[in-house]
Amino acid sequence: MQSGVFCFRNDLRLHDNEALSLALRECDQLYLVYSFEDRLWKPKKNRRISIHRARFILEALKCLGEKIKKLGNELHFVYGDISESIPRFMEEVGADICFISEENAYEEKKAEDALSGCVPLQKGHGRTLIHQHDLPFQLNDLPETFSKFRKLVEKDLQISRCLEEPVNLNTSKSLNTALPSLREMGFNRFNINHKGYYSFRGGFEAGQKRAQNWIWESHNLFKYKITRNQLKGADFSSRFSPWLSLGCLSSREIFWEVKKYESKYSANESTYWLIFELLWRDFFQFLARAHGPKIFHRRGLHPERPLTVEPADAESLFSSWKMGTTLDPFINANMNELRLTGWMSNRGRQNVASYLINNLGLDWRKGAQWFEEQLIDYDPCSNYGNWLYLAGYGNDPRTNRCFNVTKQAELYDPTGSYQKDWL
Ligand code: FAD
Q1: 143 part of a folded domain
Q2: Is residue 331 domain-shared with residue 261, that is, in the same domain?
Q3: Single pTM value for the model
Q4: 74-115: per-residue pLDDT in tens?
Q5: Which residues form ligand 1's pocket by a CB distance below 6 Å?
Q6: What residues have CB less than 8 Å from 142, skipping those under 6 apart?
Q7: Mean pLDDT in the chain?
Q8: What's the 372 CA to ligand 1 centre distance in angstroms?
């Protein structure tokens, strides 16, 4: 037995946490740590976290810290990139080894590699529904399209059971356990001035409550396939994404809740469709893992495809897109919802992305970067994967997915009431 550190990142939960279970088995004394990484909280160039996501993360940490305390341990906070803050912390407490949940995106993997160069590091899996070892192909042979991927994995879908929440967290002495405030992290709380149709709250407790309510109490799951393309309201889609992105919920636990629901009531197209969407999420995670930095390059996975030149007034067009002042009211409404709440429907995201790429003729990475900052549910794999796909440089045989935004507005907001809410 040894003394170890568990470093939380985008896995802010105690249940179904493989790396944490491993750490608890191997250490008789375990320090639980979260590092506020400079690359995210103090970037050299553009801001990377909006106030909406910052608030959500701090709430999730508060919820996690309180639960840890109930189980006899403490959540410690350190500052700086993990390859510096974690070794420093380990030295201070005399820990021998560090445990961490593996991520799939390039920058996060680079941070893991840097950390493993400094201290003994053991990793656990937990970011995807399907464990990488259960894929019916090697990662190098990841199918180019989602439908090929889905057909292959669905042939014999292997989803392991969720891991239980630990009952004891192997006490350590406490050091810095003070959670910083939004203000201390450089945000002004009064910037939050709009709640939107649904108020997200960070933390695994709020995530599980949402799942309980959306799946079991209001049976929204049962009609999801019909409602999922809507724009207005709190329940047309699950809204699980922020909790999944920050790891307050695991996609495995959602999968097994859906299976439980199907066996109690019945399976239908809607119950299947939620799992279908979780497979999209997995596909983008594996895509990012397989292609590393390429998903952030302008021509992504297709350097052979042509590039369009941005117009001379690109900067002002981009600014009008961000601020919801373009010539198109449907786009403006969606962009306002995003800026004011940190969330936008999937239908909205597809339309505003298509508009930036096809109508404004801008570099898709500008839009992806703005989403990265604004979205509460930001996840590098899902965000850059979806943008690449729409820009024609990703996993799509088609090179152009252009939406007619006027027709889309007529179809999905026929009375204009969504636009009225946000303009
Ligand atoms: P639901 O419709 O209820 O779906 C359930 C879950 O399936 C979601 O929570 C999500 O985890 C997953 N999912 C659904 N659609 C997708 C998809 N297209 N790609 C990947 N996973 C999916 N999702 C993120 O989580 N983070 C992002 O940063 C992100 N950026 C996006 C950028 C663009 C340009 C587009 C078009 C989509 C993006 N998405 C992203 C995917 C999708 O829009 C959101 O996951 C979804 O709208 C979240 O709402 P929900 O939880 O109610 O989804």
Answers
A1: no
A2: no
A3: 0.97
A4: 999 999 999 999 999 999 999 999 999 999 999 999 999 999
A5: 228, 237-241, 244-245, 274, 277-278, 280-281, 284, 345-346, 349-350, 353, 371, 375, 377-379, 382-383, 386-387, 390
A6: 149, 286, 287, 290
A7: 95
A8: 13
